[in-house]
Amino acid sequence: MPERSESESRKLLRRLRDTLATPAKGQERLDRITHMIADSMRTDVCSIYLFRDETTLELCATEGLNPEAVHQTRMRLGEGLVGRVAKTSTPVNTGNAPAERGFRFMPETGEEIYSAFLGVPIQRLGERLGVLVVQSKQARQYSDDEVYALEVVAMVLAEMTELGAFIGEGEALSALHQQPVLIRGLTGQEGSAEGRVWLHEPRVVVANPVGDDPKKELKRLNKAVEELRLSVDAMMSGSEIVDKDHQQVLETYRMFANSRGWLRRMEEDIQRGLSAEAAVEKEQSTTRARLGQVPDPYLRERLHDLDDLSNRLLRILTGQGRDTGAAMPENPVLVARNIGPAELLEYGRKLKGVVLEEGSVGSHAAVVARALAIPLVIHAERITTEALNGDAILVDGDQGVVHLRPEDTVAGAFRDKIAMQAEAQSRYASLRELPATAACGTRVAMHMNAGLMADLPSLAGSGAEGVGLFRTELQFLLRSRVPRRGELAALYSRVLDSAKGKRVVFRTLDIGSDKVLPYMKPQDEPNPAMGWRAIRVGLDKPGVMRMQLQALIRAAAGRPLSVMFPFVAQMSEFEAARRVLLNEIERERRAGHVLPTSTEIGAMLETPSLAFAPRSFFELTDFVSIGGNDLKQFFFAADRENERVRRRYDTLDVSFLDFIGTIADRCAETNTPLSFCGEDAGRPIEALCLVAMGLRTLSMRPASIGPVKHLIRKVNLAELRSVIDEAREAGALTVRPAVMEWLARQPM
């Protein structure tokens, strides 16, 4: 068979466009396409397989195979040659299909007489939609030009599938982006929300993938690429950010934008019949599929850079900017691949929830989501390709689950859950002015966590007695430079004003690990969570620490000041940081500034080592706050970013509770005030057991204060401690079953 020329490839695309333009129902249109492709390429068979669900392909149309097999023949992802193409996202081209690895004979199709096989994936930007196959009786391999032609046709089919050109009866021909989808991710911030999708970066729609005039399309492409290059150069020259990672991303953008190979491949696609937009998207999809198979995480990370750059180029070509003119829906739930803290804050409290494909529980976005008290689900795979603006969405931050376009029964059950939570919160509101005093008379102080001025109104509304943790890193994360001392002093002063005399504990700058400042050079560390972070950065960068401490001292100005140093691992670190603070107070005194009326200097116990510090440490520090999230991950050696291990270890594990009891006993010996700050402080059962082990101050998100206070007021803590002790003595590994059984017997 003669090799096909480029003009014949263009002819095939034109025939495809004409076929798609002819009015027809989905199945009829598919049938016409398979007939047209087989005729144009002079093959005996052309078949289209589409996914009916995530793992099952279905034969939806064929020219040459047994027509009765249509919608009857199905195979799993990876099964047979068709399944292999779908799984690997790469073509299979063989002259002897039965001898090929993984071949599966489907007797109902009558394909046993065909030797030659060429299958290419139907995919769009990483989303697998199906497989396009041609077969011939003659034992031969298809030429490179034939492979290319079929790939181009598959790309157009993917665009048309996206636009709903093949809707018909059956799961495989159901409309995309209309079926209910359940996506399991990870909890970034607890809470539940119902709303409508608002895409941070709406997808670019390529309405016409076939180009009539190659010269015109090439001119459009080259003009757009030049505009893209200029914009990247402007970003490079205008960026004040010296962060290594950010600079590396911009360098990668420049490399891609100036790559001759990248441009040449798109130009070749246009010569073969694609529009400029379709050529960009085809190159994006092809490179995505290729890099997606690479084990090197650095190269896979470059996918994001390529996606972003390609999307910029597509927006230039189509004129479809981020602002599409669509109005933000009521109760918007933000959906994005990832988002920076400043961008998230711009949306503010109008958002009902946030769903990200990436992110981490300690990321900037997670910190802001917690500050805004909105549910956040991270690692929600495929959400940006599956969701459309305005789609109904349910966000279950407690379970890390997203329901997109939910069925009525699911939505009903979810609304019932939200209603029950709202009803409970209204009941808890009656406890707002009441103390958290247990039935045995034990008094527990209830404090809240905060990080933004917007959090402070919750101080009165939640019934919190103070702010047990004010995260100061947000003001650093939201800027492209180090904030000025005067700016911070004014902010901290407003925080104290809003607290109206209630205690506020300011945690000094807690950066490092996954909280990297955009203007501070990150460290290349194999395990940043256990590396150069928090107080270690402050002691090594004393200028930043001193500036922040000066701002805190000036903000207090005649009011009490409470400062807490994070991630203290040994007494010497605390002594050094404490000395810096005392020196700054002395400098401010000599300068004639108004000093705080009193100063509390505390440490956050987040590493097990500090629990075994000398007695003199507990005598020196004014208070200790257990940072439960980090302490638990270090105690169990279970990274809280790792879903495979983070849920394996129970807070009510006997060994962990014993450790908490040890810390409480050491603090009691020296009359050192002790508090617990972390997610477990806001979980009623866990909080109850922590209090039973000797904790008398808890700090949590405002919404958790009511449920925790309600339970504490109902129980006798002395009895609960006996239950815990009995379970430990009986050899239990966790006290949870014993505690739950005891609670079930209590009058509530």
Description of the structure:
The protein has an eight-stranded mixed sheet. The model is unreliable at 1-6 and 239-243 (pLDDT under 50). Helix 1 runs antiparallel to helix 2, helix 7 (260-271) packs across helix 8 and helix 18 (542-556) crosses helix 19 (571-590). The protein is built from 27 helices and 23 strands. The protein is 45% helix and 17% strand. It starts with 5 loop residues before the first helix and ends with a helix. The chain is elongated. With 748 residues, it is of the alpha/beta class. A hairpin with a 4-residue loop joins strand 13 (392-396) and strand 14 (401-404).
Outline of this structure?
The protein is an alpha/beta fold and 748 residues long. It contains 27 helices and 23 strands.
Instruction: Report strand %.
Output: 15-25%
- Largest sheet, order of strands side by side? 7-14-13-9-10-11-12-8
Which stretches of 5+ consecutive residues score pLDDT under 50?
1-6, 239-243
**How many helices does DSSP assign?**
27
| Number of distinct beta strands | 23
User: Percent helix among the residues?
Assistant: 40-55%
What is the average per-residue confidence, as pLDDT, rounded to a whole number? 84
Shape by Cα distribution: elongated
Main β-sheet, in a few words? 8 strands, mixed
Helix-and-strand structural type: alpha/beta
Measure the end-to-end span.
83 Å
What's the Cα radius of gyration?
Answer: 31 Å
